[in-house]
Amino acid sequence: MHVAACVQPQKLARLRGAAGSSHAVHAALSWAHAETIIRRQPVDVLVVDPQFESTATPRTDRIRAVRARYGALPMVVYSALTAQTLRSLVELGTEGVGQIVLYGLDDDPRHLRQVLELQPGILLAGQFLALIRPALNLTPAPVSAAVERAIRTPAVFHNVSDLTAAAGVPRRSLYRHLERAGLASPREVLTSARVLRAYALLRNPGYSLDLAAQQLRFSDVDALCDAMKEMVGITPGKARNRVAPEEFVRRLATRLLAMGRDIAPGSAIGVVGEAELFGGAA
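-> structure tokens emitted (282 positions)
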């Protein structure tokens, strides 16, 4: 698991202690640096502190800005409980930031680690990557790393051009590498990443289809529904209520690999329709 941390030094020390050697904690030096980490690392969860960069007066505007840009990225607020921070915590809670850990009160290592590991989508992304890993290992390392980032942090990628840039290869080469490995097209890889995170978010009763579609950069709810039906053969509502997580991940991985087998040599399947699905240029 990769954790991006925008917290004060004493909280960072506790966070690293809770994460242990099996999880990576990327410490942000500033809010701008935090966005760089999110764009360049396969971040699973973002931990934020209202007193980060502003110890005297807690601020929530930068937390709101990051949440607005990467809404589908799980966020945990890690804050001291003081007279100065109370208003900020109430504001964030009112706005739907439901996961708040209080420094020195409920941040013992076991609890803090559990909070991080149980964020929506983290376990599912790991399970999904494990199922497609044999095929992913047949691609060059930069391509494999870019696909992993997309699966773990789908909201960061607007379209295939972003995935191409992350992989550092020409667009045609990206299609060719995935095709040779038996994976579906880049567009379908991004669709699977967003569908997986949408399923994880929708399992939380507080998430609506509208909110999931917006945060995952689908053009509208219909596009999200069409994508989920394409990838797992079921609507989001039925998936949320009737399909267990392990079964959903298995269906999605099976479909993505089957799509790879169906790609004809030299084809560019998946390019057409990206704008309609994601609401942006391909």
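The chain has two domains: 2-117, 122-278.
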